[in-house]
Amino acid sequence: MSEAAFVFPASSRSELVGALDGLASAQPDQWVAEGPLFVWLVDEVDGLYLDWEPEDVANLEQSMGCRPAWGVQIQYRMSRRQRMVTLVLALLRPGGVAVDDFCTHAWTAEEIETGVLVAGGRFGEPPVR
């Protein structure tokens, strides 16, 4: 089963595309990074927040100071979590936040890198029970 993470970088869309081109193999409408990790640019007009809970969107808006119009979606398998984290940290180098499927927290690069626990789990993994 695959999981999803979303990255909302502080960089411009063109800067992000340049970064992705250097980090992953470009394919039609997506990139594929080592893992494999499947990566897409997603836009609000194309349904970015369609399946999100309202409190998740509100937390993201509060963290970013606005409602991002676009972001990056990454699909990964739990066994490839560390590769996903490495990619997310590279995309967050200029700032921004990331969110995952497991909690409503908007994660900073520092929190991801240091393995901070939120709601019992680290970024990109379910809570430890």
What's the architecture in CATH terms? Answer: 2-Layer Sandwich
**CATH fold name:** Alpha-Beta Plaits
User: Largest sheet, described in full?
Assistant: 6 strands, antiparallel
Q: What is the overall silhouette?
A: globular
Mind telling me the CATH class?
Alpha Beta
Structural class: alpha+beta
Query: What is the number of strand segments?
Result: 6
What is the element layout, followed by pairings?
Blueprint: E1 2-9, H1 13-23, E2 25-27, E3 30-33, E4 37-43, H2 54-64, E5 70-77, H3 81-91, E6 96-100, H4 109-114
Antiparallel strand pairs: 1-5, 1-6, 2-3, 3-4, 4-5
Q: Which short descriptors sum up this protein?
A:
single chain, 129 residues, alpha+beta, Alpha-Beta Plaits, six-stranded antiparallel β-sheet, 4 helices, 6 strands
Explain this structure.
There is one protein chain. The protein has 129 residues and is of the alpha+beta class. The chain contains 4 helices and 6 strands, in the order E-H-E-E-E-H-E-H-E-H. It has a single domain (2-114), classed as 2-Layer Sandwich (Alpha-Beta Plaits). It has a 6-stranded antiparallel β-sheet with strand order 2-3-4-5-1-6, sandwiched between helices. The radius of gyration is 14 Å and the shape is globular. The model has no long low-confidence stretch (mean pLDDT 94).
